Amino acid sequence: MRRILYAIALAASTATVAAHGDTIGTCDIDSDYGLQITRQALLFSRDEGVPARIEMARGELRIDGRTIAISDADRERLLRYEATVRELVPEAKALASEAVEIAFSAVQHVSNTFNSPGNVDKAAERLVLARRRIQAEIDASFEREAFNEREVEQLIEETIEGLLPALIGDITGEAIRIALTGDENAAAELEARAERMETAIERDVEARAERLEKRAEALCPTVADLDGIESSLELRLADNQPLDLVRLDRD
Question: I need a labelling partner for 90 at 20 to 30 A (CA). Which of 35, 48, 116, 181 fits?
Answer without folding.
Answer: 48
